[in-house]
Amino acid sequence: MVQKKAQRDTAQSSELTATEKITYTTGILGQNMIYDFMSMYILFFFTDILKIPPKTAGTILVAASLWDAVNDPLMGMIADKTRSRWGKFRPYLLFDSLVIGAVTTLCYVKFGGPLPAVIAYAAVVYILWGMTFTMCDIPIWALSSVSSPSPTDRTAMVTLGKIGSVIGVVIVSVGSVTILKIFGGERSAPAYTAAAGLFAGAGSLLMLITGIFSHERILPPKKTVPFSENSKTIYKNKPLLLLLITLFLLNFINSVRQSVQIYFAVYTWGNAGYVTMLGLSLVVGMLIGMGISPALMKRVSKQKLFIGSCAGGAVISLLPFVTNYLNIPLGLVCIGISFAFTGTAMIVSTSMLMDAIDYAELKLGFRGEGIAFSMNTFLTKLGGTLAKLLLGAALIVMHYVENQQPTPVVQRGFSFLVYIVPAIAFVLCAVPILFYPLKNSDLHTMEEKLKKQRVETANANDEKV
Fold it and tell me: Is the pTM of the predicted complex or chain greater than 0.90?
């Protein structure tokens, strides 16, 4: 009993190591390389390479999203009930990361055959991809919430993870065009297969390394929480409900721009090479916004900082469209600044998500990290799906034809998606946070109560043993 208590005390007090921070950052980097390659190219691959009609491709995405509504929360609950010698979340990184690499590559294989067979294959592998990705996505993000009992340390992990995610985006944005050209160009199916294999293979390996070197220091209760009780983490947690709405809209902004950027670069700015410039604009902006966020949160309340970031993002997103959306330097600068606001908003909202999980632990007696992050994962993918559906609808409205010469309607349409839609989403993002109940003054009191509650729970468990 004394030995187990000592192990528990060590888990609660140990500080994050440099190795953990580095491998967590690179693990999220790898995870986002996979996700962002899918976000950027899967609809283009379906419509322009596999020749699947846009309406049918959109139907595949909707079907996958509907399944995610069941699959993601279920996976979150399964993760919350997991008890193993590796922890709650690490086992999924250790044993599923390589699987997602293989399935991602299969999504970009063109086998040929009649169109119905091509559609069936695309639907099956894309839905399978969503399931296998969820098995890594929820655990790797939830891992940050149990990496340390210190809110400051957890915020640091989230910040590092988000920075890693941005680097993953830029690696794909900048590197994908070059890789596609090396293997045949953006109209070559084998080029997409090769690029997917490279990005997915590297991403899978980085996630596996994260699973090997990470630690879980907030230990779950020995008794697992029934599914029916675990669901209270969502519907009896007002801060979390508000944050999930906000996180959905925030991720929708990124998803729209990622889905549209290859079309925007080719048909509005006239050259696929501008995808690289857009990627650089994204990474510089996001890294600046994320990098300054921890310091800003020490000076300004999280609620005010988030709302201010959304307001700034909305204004700067509108500027290129209302002036001259064909002005490439202006567009790159404004997109970069809007991504800086996005970066700050992402760090602040994810830090608030950690607070909402602490709130669940204090009020309900269990944290429910798995189901909380599973809902965030589902809403992220739902945002990505809606972004692709919006793009698909826009293609129909604009009478888009592959390889067509750009027309004013097409140029304005893709510009609307890149500038106006994110501006509207920024405004909507701020609305739920106006009603967010956890103020900065409440957080210190909540942290002290949780420390006492965890010690009492640990001592009670040790007495039972």
Answer: no
